[in-house]
Design brief:
Elements: E1 9-15, H1 21-30, E2 38-45, E3 48-55, H2 58-65, E4 74-80, E5 95-96, E6 102-110, H3 113-122, H4 135-146, H5 152-160, E7 165-173, E8 180-185, E9 190-194, E10 197-201, E11 213-216, E12 221-226, E13 229-234, E14 240-241, E15 246-247, H6 252-256, H7 263-269, H8 271-278, H9 283-295, E16 298-303, H10 305-322, E17 326-330, H11 331-338, E18 346-352, H12 358-369, E19 373-378, H13 384-388, E20 391-394, H14 407-427, H15 432-467, E21 473-477, H16 481-496, E22 500-504, E23 521-526, H17 532-543, E24 548-554, H18 558-563, E25 566-570, H19 579-583, H20 585-597
The protein binds 2-deoxy-2-amino glucitol-6-phosphate.
2-deoxy-2-amino glucitol-6-phosphate binds next to helix 10.
Length: 615
């Protein structure tokens, strides 16, 4: 079961008979959950490459361009989730070289594309798109120009050795029109075989209706597909790898979820990979955003729901690391609360995974009318937020299908932490040692989150069973963990429909504690940071009234574990400013498993929907 948050869906096939285009079109439809802002196909026939591509969802593009109508029994296709270059026809895949003899599709992120592009342009290559991917066909062209006698596969081999980052690519060329050459580094790639054809895809669902015989292509491997089947080689030393197909016993519905029962659980498990993606963001944009925040007279962090909780956590990060005061504001209240005071010296950092949430866009509109500077953090390139922001960062979490935001929340936090570190560096408020320590812990966060999921999921399942009939919950934290508590509360309410109240633990004695009676479940977010001592006091006051304490604690924190009725452990040594990224994971799982215990489908919570990009 490979979890992959890298965006796009790729597919291709070499058929013994018939046209490839209708097969590619149907397969891309099965991959559309991976990315749906543009689509494209390329086939090869009679020594010529035929391409159809455009921005928009597959059905929309098909209506106009007929994606079934391309000649040839060999072809490749791509459905996109933009990371570099807005969702426009010119940025849709496949991309070609200068001669039009090589076509390439790609899923992943080429980190060193700018310097490669510069070199190629200096050698006279002409680029059409703003994508990172387009360097690949030009590099292959360059290899074939330098050494015309080498094979297409060897030219691809030379090319991928120059790439830094993640990729699953597929290449067709008129120079060897009977082949498709693919290569993989980190992004998933699987080959499917049956007696009539050989296929490749980023996910098994793409070819499962035509074959359940699949060969997983490993990192650092190149595979050539032809009517003779498939040949796998190691990129490092070109040694041949023999690997037999495995039979996949998944129902198509299951396949789309990669074997997970729900998209929400799949997306919770994708978080380590998503966090790795956020650590690949271009420094340039992080720096730019930090510069704007550094110059601002006042900063409002504006968003709704889960994104607002990311803003709340970020306000602690900016204050603690960069001594920058920021105002987290619920977007639906922004105009009423600050509409009159916002002005040309104000900066709005708007956060929205969809980039389309009406209240957030309305806040931005009001702020722009008063000449404020607008910055954006979103998961959807091409969304309205990207169009109205002076600078925006795309968090690269890949499409989030589950209505309940999970992977996009932790990715937002990781991006905010990186911006806060940039700002701290600019302002010289934190020692180099602490900067290095925080950066090292952030780099380790994907593994940390992976460990928490692997070691605590079963435990959370048991706790969910125990509290599935609880009528109400408290979620409490102090400091930055208040944001984690709010997010835990929201997840439980929105998918399990259990009333839940979250507030800074220090507020307990100012009212809410009157609700507590024996067995009343209180979830405490309790990292080992400066707030722990006072939080233990809050745990004691709740226990004194018979509350059932569920504590999310640092591994080995025996004192709090002794106080708790149930506890979930999170890895040691997580700095407080990064703690929401890891301490929210058990709360996401708790909400998910309580929803299951109560017989609800976590993917489609009643009365709720996800904002999507308005074309
Ligand atoms: C979170 O699980 C909810 N789906 C919802 O609160 C969401 O966070 C909110 O609607 C904001 O969405 P956005 O990030 O796309 O703007």
């Amino acid at each position: 079961m490979c979890c992959d948050s890298r965006m796009c869906g790729i597919f291709g096939c070499v058929l013994k008979e018939g046209n490839a285009a209708p097969i590619i079109h149907a397969a891309l439809k099965r991959l559309e959950y991976r990315g749906y802002d543009s689509v494209g196909e390329a086939t090869i026939d009679d020594g010529e490459i035929y391409i159809k591509k455009d921005r928009g969802m597959i059905d929309e593009v098909h209506k106009i361009k007929n994606l079934d109508d391309l000649p040839g029994n060999i072809g490749i296709g791509h459905t996109r989730w933009a990371t570099h270059g807005a969702p426009l026809e010119v940025n849709a895949h496949p991309h070609m070289d200068c001669t039009g003899q090589i076509a390439v599709i790609h899923n992943g992120i080429i980190e060193n594309f700018e310097e490669l592009k510069q070199e190629l342009e200096n050698n006279g290559h002409f680029f059409k798109s703003k994508t990172d991917t387009e360097v690949i066909p030009h590099l292959i062209e360059h290899s074939l120009e330098i050494n015309p006698s080498i094979s297409l596969a060897d030219a691809v081999l030379e090319t991928v050795k120059k790439l830094n980052g993640s990729y699953a690519i597929a290449v067709i060329s008129t120079r060897e029109p009977d082949k498709i050459v693919c290569a993989r580094n980190e992004s998933p790639l699987v080959v499917g075989v049956n007696e009539k054809a050989v296929y490749f895809a980023s996910d098994i669902p793409a070819f499962l209706p035509v074959t359940n015989k699949a060969v997983i292509v490993d990192d650092g491997e190149l595979v050539t597909l032809s009517l003779d089947g498939y040949e796998i080689k190691k990129i490092a030393d070109s040694s041949i790898v023999t690997r037999e197909p495995k039979v996949i016993d998944w129902a198509p519905e299951m396949a789309v979820k990669q074997g997970y029962p729900h998209f929400m659980l799949k997306e919770i498990h994708e978080q380590p990979e998503c966090l790795r993606n956020t650590l690949r963001l271009q420094d340039h944009y992080l720096d730019l955003m930090a510069t704007f925040l550094d110059r601002a007279r006042e900063v409002y962090l504006v968003a709704c729901g889960t994104s607002y909780h990311a803003c709340l956590a970020a306000s602690y990060m900016f204050s603690k690391l960069a001594f920058l005061a920021t105002y987290p504001v619920v977007a639906s209240e922004f105009v009423e609360q600050h509409g009159k005071s916002v002005n040309i010296d104000s900066t709005i950092l708007a956060v929205s995974q969809s980039g389309e949430t009406a209240d957030t866009l309305a806040s931005i509109h009001a702020a722009r009318q008063r000449a404020a500077t607008v910055l954006g953090l979103t998961n959807v390139i091409g969304s309205t937020l990207t169009r109205v922001s002076r600078v925006y960062i795309s968090q690269q979490s890949g499409p989030e299908i589950g209505v309940a935001a999970t992977k996009t929340f932790t990715s937002q936090l990781s991006v905010m932490a990186q911006v806060a570190l940039k700002l701290a560096k600019k302002r010289g408020k934190v020692s180099q040692d602490e900067m290095d320590y925080l950066a090292e812990r952030l780099d380790k966060m994907p593994e940390t989150v992976d460990t928490i999921i692997r070691t605590q999921e079963e435990k959370v399942k048991q706790i969910a069973k125990k509290y599935k009939d609880a009528k109400v919950f408290f979620f409490l934290g102090r400091g930055i963990s208040t944001a984690t508590a709010y997010e835990g509360r929201l997840k439980l309410m929105e998918i399990a429909y259990v009333p839940a109240i979250a507030f800074p633990a220090g507020e307990s004695k100012h009212g809410p504690i009157s609700l507590v009676e024996p067995g009343f479940p209180v979830v405490f977010v309790c990292p080992k940071d400066d707030t722990r001592k006072t939080l233990i006091g809050n745990i004691m006051e709740m226990k004194a009234r018979g509350a059932s304490i569920i504590a999310v604690v640092e591994e080995g924190d025996e004192e709090v574990k002794r106080l708790a009725d149930d506890f979930i452990e999170v890895s040691k040594g997580i700095p407080d400013v990064l703690s929401p990224i890891s301490y929210v994971i058990p709360l996401q799982l708790l909400a998910y498993y309580i929803a299951l215990e109560r017989g609800y489908n976590p993917d489609t919570p009643r009365n709720l929907a996800k904002s999507v990009t308005v074309k």
